[in-house]
Amino acid sequence: MAEKNQKAEGEKKSSKKLIIIILSVVLILAGAAGAYFFLVDDDAGDVSEVEEAESEPAVSTEVFYYDFSKPLIVNFPAGSRMRLMQVSISLLVDNQEAIEDLKKHDPMIRNNILMLISAQSSDELNSREGKETLRQAVRAEVSAVLEKMTGKHPVKEVFFTSFVMQ
């Protein structure tokens, strides 16, 4: 029986030693990893990130929209399937100054857009492709007016916020 007690005490001592050794190794590894992260020079990586950020052009995150005050209404010729079209348009522009230019030249822009829409056939405007073509043509027309009057191209996109055909 005395032998069994000595074996049990020997196993307890060896298991305690094993746990202490494992904990010591884990603490040493954790300390080494912590020292590595704190002492390794990361400035070289930070400098390259800063240089990349500085080399990219500054992108304006602010968005400006110009909505025409009234919807545009166009009458189609008597022979066409549609008699009337009403469309509301919003423009995405670069800056606040472009909105002031659009307000200033609103009558000329509205006139040119009305002429452009009235030249379209109602059959073309019934399809998505026809509406997309009209949207691109409106953008080109507005850009042409602003280029002529201000020398700038501030219009980025054209959006139809309402499109009714009867």
Automatic annotation (TrEMBL):
InterPro entries: FliL (IPR005503). It is a single-pass membrane protein. The chain crosses the membrane at residues 20-39. Keywords: Cell inner membrane, Cell membrane, Cell projection, Chemotaxis, Cilium, Flagellar rotation, Flagellum, Membrane, Transmembrane, Transmembrane helix. One of its GO terms (cellular component) is plasma membrane. One of its GO terms (biological process) is bacterial-type flagellum-dependent swarming motility. Its main location: membrane. Pfam families: FliL (PF03748). It is found in: Cell inner membrane; Cell membrane. Belongs to the FliL family. Controls the rotational direction of flagella during chemotaxis. This is Flagellar protein FliL. It comes from Methylotuvimicrobium buryatense (Methylomicrobium buryatense). The lineage of its organism: Bacteria, Pseudomonadati, Pseudomonadota, Gammaproteobacteria, Methylococcales.
